[in-house]
Amino acid sequence: MIIKSEPCDPNILGVMSDFALETAGVNVCLSYYIGQSEVKFSVRSCIKEVHADELAAFLAKGLGGGGGHMYKAGGKLRPEKLMHLFPMQTDEQYAEFSAKILHERMEQYFDSYEIIYAKEMTLNTSEMKKYAKTTQELGYVKLDDIFPDNTEITVRTLKGDMDVIIDTTTYLMIGLFGEVYPISEKKAQKFL
Nearest Cα to 161, choosing from 175, 186, 135, 180? Predict the structure, then answer.
């Protein structure tokens, strides 16, 4: 949804966009006003496919500035930048051109990509180039090589502290992110 407003407090633009998202079928909203010293806009998104900050930056690229957060963002277009693209003679021409730029850039943004959901898509990979991921070696240790049998130790894991009694079937693994965790020999054999 695109909403043109009279010049107002920029916070009001955000409130207008927030209210617009309450409308059935509206997932993204742009509200803006055209003033003499700037074109101010607010962007809201309630879907993960459109990040408000990314859209705001796209709208303002080369003409001002825009940014914010994933769901709420804003920005402005500078009149001198707009006039550089299209020298305007009247306030009416300036307003029309500013609105046209915002509408065109909204269309360009949504036409610039296609959303593909992996769970709904089957890709034909026969003509795609193949690659192999580099194998990553991780570490492990058999705990009875370090501690005597029946010794109780505490292992600090990402999920909390775990008390372990050492026996011949207990290993300590190092995960992909450097985390450590105790594992039984039976489970460890899958990785060894």
Answer: 180
> Which two structure tokens, joined as six digits, stand for 85?
């693209």
- Spatial distance between the Cα atoms of 63 and 70, rounded to a whole number of angstroms: 21
Please tell me the distance from the alpha carbon of residue 42 to that of residue 11, in angstroms, as a whole number.
Answer: 9
Report the phi/psi class of residue 148: left, alpha or beta, with left for phi > 0 and alpha for psi in -120 to 50. beta
Residue 54's pLDDT band (boundaries 50, 70, 90)? very high
Residue 31 has a CB neighbour count (10 Å cut-off) of 25
Can you read off the two tokens belonging to residue 89? 């003679």
Please tell me the predicted confidence (pLDDT) of residue 111: 93
Residue-wise pLDDT tens digits, 176-189:
888 888 888 888 88
pTM value surpassing 0.70: no
Strand partners, 32: 4, 41
